[in-house]
Amino acid sequence: MPAEDDLLAVVRLLVDDPRAVSVKKVPGDGEWLLEVDVAPDDRGKVIGRRGRTIESLRSLAAAREPEDGRSYEVELLDD
Q1: Is there a contact between 23 and 34 (Cβ–Cβ < 8 Å)?
Q2: Number of helical (H) and strand (E) elements in the chain, helices listed first
Q3: pLDDT of amino acid 31
Q4: Most CB atoms closer than 10 Å: which of 28, 38, 42, 71?
Q5: For residue 31, which phi and psi values (nearest 5 degrees)?
Q6: What's the confidence (pLDDT) of residue 56?
Q7: CA geometry: angle at 43 spanning 42 and 46, to 5°?
Q8: CA 76 to CA 14: how far, in whole Å?
Q9: How far apart are CA 20 and CA 69, in angstroms?
Q10: DSSP label of 50
C-alpha cells in the first residue's frame, strides 16, 4: 500500500468527517511531500495537543522511508 494511502486511512480514523480528508503526494528532490487536507473543524484533531498527533503522523510516514527509498514530509494544509 502506498504511503499516502496509509496516511489517508489513519487520518480518516481521527476526524469527524472522514469524507473530507484527502492526501496528495507531491514529488521533490529525493523526497515526497504528503499534503493532508481535512475539514476546518477537524484540523485540531489532526494537530493534537501540543502537536503530538501530527508528529506521530510524520513518524508513521518516516517509517516508510527504508521501504520506499525516499523520505516523506507530512504537511497539514490551511484553508
Answers
A1: yes
A2: 4, 3
A3: 87
A4: 38
A5: -145, 165
A6: 96
A7: 90
A8: 14
A9: 30
A10: G
Burial class (CB within 10 angstroms; exposed 0-12, middle 13-18, buried 19+) of 7: buried
Closest CA to 16 of 43, 36, 52: 43
Please name which of 53, 66, 61 lies closest in space to residue 32, comparing C-alpha atoms: 61
Are 74 and 61 within 8 A, CB to CB?
Answer: yes
Q: How confident is the model at residue 64 (pLDDT cuts 50, 70, 90)?
A: confident
Determine the pLDDT at residue 58.
Answer: 95
Q: Which of 6, 1, 19 is nearest to 56 (CA)?
A: 6
CA 3 to chain centre: 9
**What CA–CA distances, in Å, run from 69 to 6, 10, 24, 55, 66?**
16, 22, 19, 21, 5
Q: What is the pLDDT of residues 14-61, one digit of tens each?
A: 999 999 999 999 998 778 999 999 999 999 999 999 999 999 999 999
